[in-house]
Amino acid sequence: DKVLIGNKITEGHDNFVMAYNMLTGIRVAVSRCSGIMRQLNAEDFKTTKKLSFNIEGNELTPSSKYDFKFKDYCPEVFRDLRSIFGIDPADYLMSVTGKYILSELGSPGKSGSFFYYSRDYRFIIKTIHHSEHKQLLKILKDYHEHVKANPNTLISQFYGLHRVKMPYSKQGIRKVHFVVMNNLFPPHRDIHLKYDLKGSTFGRKFNTDSLDKSDLSKVTLKDLNWVENKQKIKFGPEKRKLFLEQLERDVSLLKKINVMDYSLLLGVHDVKTGNTKETMQRLSIFDPISAEKRVLMNTNPRGIDLATYLPNNYIQTRMQYIFYGHDGGIRATDERNDPLSEIYYLGIIDCLTNYSLKKKLETVWRSLGHNRSTISSLPAKEYGDRFLNFIKNSTTNVKAKSQ
Ligand code: ATP
Ligand code: CA
Ligand code: CA
After folding, report:
1. With a 6 A CB cut-off, is 109 part of the ligand 1 pocket?
2. Tens of pLDDT along 45-75?
3. 155 in the same domain as 287
4. Which of 113, 184, 349 gets mutated to test ligand 1 (max ligand atoms within 8 A of its CB)?
């Protein structure tokens, strides 16, 4: 099973029951939400649907291995969001809940969240804190409006918000909130370098001293590594303009909804280095139906390899693919828009942290000893400005090679 990213979860694993319940709940809830699409109304942003699962099953829920309760938040809104993001309903169900190989990404963050990939790696399930859950509900309307107006938004694409409630021990119950979102990284292309960028420098370094060069692709580097490695996002003038304009609109939403602590997750694939053999094998389990690229193109809404090479004038002629020309990646280009060897897979992640009292206290505490601009807890406006500045300064125009 070397081809799998993350750890495969099977029966007996600590989180197997939780993961099993999450998927069972999504499958039933999403299949139920299949009537004719209609205009959303204010009620849809408050609606929740509850399902109760047990061994016996009933007319609403099929029999389930375990007893648990499932709550689906604003199902119609998320259905609409999936449609805006071009996710085919049958495809979604199949990917998220079809005969799954569920794999867990460990807990990559400090927050204690768990991450799971769908079987084809297109989707990520992230367990979230109750405060993040409340935050998403609170901003759902703004978020929905934003993605409707900005189909190329770089902010995480949320496809569902759910909760499972299950027996924990004899006395207790365990409530787990989670979101389904897009995996920024494609399963069939090696990501050679990965950065998580916040625009702050305080503690923002991954120590690579003890790492082999070949292990670099396995870790997530941070702001100080980015600066030390003199990394830049290389875009020609038009692409740069479009990218920064989108980023600016996205950040202004994040400021408005008073969140901070988010980052630009950036994966770099270098076509010169290409893929390892393992990655090519991974492609064969990428789609449950077929390993054939031709079929994958039809089943992946982002259009895998729609354009492996983008012509000089594609910005004018193929505007709709600006961020999706490479199954969600953006090709690096020089000042003449000729392609360079990197493809970037990027997006703004972890954007549900409200600038709450806790953060306010942290700001006061840290401000006592540190320069305010280097610490990561700042009010949303300052955080957003600093973030935007950092990414702007990290984006350059590369001279074209003379021919
Ligand atoms: P913390 O709050 O400590 O930063 P967290 O638990 O909130 O951690 P995130 O910051 O959301 O976690 O993500 C942690 C890591 O998981 C990222 O650096 C990235 O490597 C991976 N990751 C998160 N979201 C995605 C995504 N949408 N696509 C691909 N990888 C992701
Ligand atoms: Ca984070
Ligand atoms: Ca977080």
Report:
1. yes
2. 999 999 999 989 888 888 888 899 999 999 9
3. no
4. 349
Beta strand spans in 148-292 (E): 158-167, 173-182, 193-197, 221-222, 233-234, 263-270
pTM: 0.86
pLDDT tens digits, 182-227 = 989 887 788 999 999 999 888 888 888 888 877 888 889 999 999 9
Does 350 sit in the ligand 1 pocket, CB within 6 Å?
yes
Question: Domain check: are 37 and 167 in the same one?
Answer: yes
Domain count, the chain: 2
Rounded to the nearest angstrom, the distance between the alpha carbon of 21 and the centre of ligand 2 is: 26
Q: Which atom of ligand 1 is nearest to the CA of 112?
A: 6
Closest ligand 1 atom, CA of 184?
28
Position 320 in a domain: yes
For 70, the token pair is 């499932």
Range of the domain at 266: 193-396
Q: Which helix (H) or strand (E) holds 69?
A: strand 68-73
